[in-house]
Design brief:
Layout lengths: L1 E3 L14 H13 L2 E9 L9 H9 L4 E9 L5 H8 L6 E5 L22 H17 L5 E2 L16 H15 L2 E5 L14 H9 L4 E4 L12 H11 L3 E6 L2 E6 L1
Parallel strand pairs: 1-2, 2-3, 3-4, 4-5, 5-6, 6-7
Antiparallel strand pairs: 8-9
Helix pairs in contact: 1-2, 4-5, 5-6, 6-7
Length: 253
């Protein structure tokens, strides 16, 4: 079963979300064989559009389960906003992510020179430390793009699995799910998040996974999910996580 739990209707704020935008996303999901679609805009954009459109689209496409989520870029200054999301009655799931380290937005192409100021292993440790804080903050259901720090193909010198073990242990301890995010295939790294070795480590630690495209446009919904499914299957998984009203349910892959 294909699901896509990480998509952005509003992109980065460039898109005015209305019924037609959502219809285009759901149609693409249907055409790609996706059975459950999660709409999870960035935290700053969650309240930028009318969620009343959801019921209309759900009525038009009863064959697809449409879930409502949000991607939270974790930081201590966002705790008030996070609390608001936690209390949101229609929220199906929350993705916790990290997009910056010590105030540096490492995923922005025009700030790529920031990598030159770090030793590779130190940067990975710092990133995973921030992500562990997000996991242990207790608000999330899914960990977003676990090893996104590699997106410009900036690799550590040490074993990436060993570097990630502290956050993987926190994920297991806190009961979160890891997404197999295909958007890395569209980036310079040309690899899913997380890499295969980390997916295999997640399986060995009994950490649940789900699938996502991280689509920022309707035509990208479901993109490369077949690859994610194959990687997940090869790692040993036979079930994946889905969510409704913050409750996880496992379904056959």
């Amino acid at each position: 079963m294909l699901v896509d739990y990480h998509t952005h209707p509003a992109c980065h704020g460039e898109v005015k979300v209305d019924e037609e935008v959502l219809v285009r996303m759901v149609r693409t999901a249907r055409d790609m064989g996706v059975r459950e679609l999660g709409l999870s805009d960035h935290d700053r954009l969650f309240y930028s559009w009318d969620k009343g459109y959801l019921e209309t689209v759900r009525h038009r496409f009863p064959e697809i389960q449409i879930r409502l989520g949000v991607e939270v870029s974790y930081g201590p200054s966002r705790l008030e906003l996070i609390e608001r999301f936690v209390k949101e009655p229609d929220m199906d799931y929350i993705i916790c992510s990290v997009h910056s380290v010590d105030g540096w937005s490492f995923d922005e192409a025009d700030r790529r020179d920031g990598y030159d100021r770090w030793e590779p292993d130190d940067l990975y440790r710092a990133y995973y430390s921030h992500l562990e804080q997000a996991v242990r903050a207790g608000f999330g259901d899914i960990v977003g793009h676990l090893d996104v720090i590699k997106l410009f193909d900036y690799r550590p010198d040490s074993d990436p699995v060993k570097l990630a073990m502290p956050v993987l242990s926190a994920i297991r301890e806190c009961g979160l799910t890891v997404e197999i995010n295909t958007n890395g295939l569209n980036k310079p790294v040309r690899e899913v998040y997380p890499e295969r070795a980390l997916v295999e480590q997640c399986f060995s630690m009994d950490i649940p996974v789900t699938l996502s495209s991280d689509a920022h446009a309707p035509e990208d919904v479901g993109r490369h999910l077949g690859i994610a499914r194959e990687i997940t299957w090869q790692a040993g998984y036979r079930r994946i996580a889905t969510f409704e009203k913050r409750r996880r349910r496992m379904v056959d892959l």
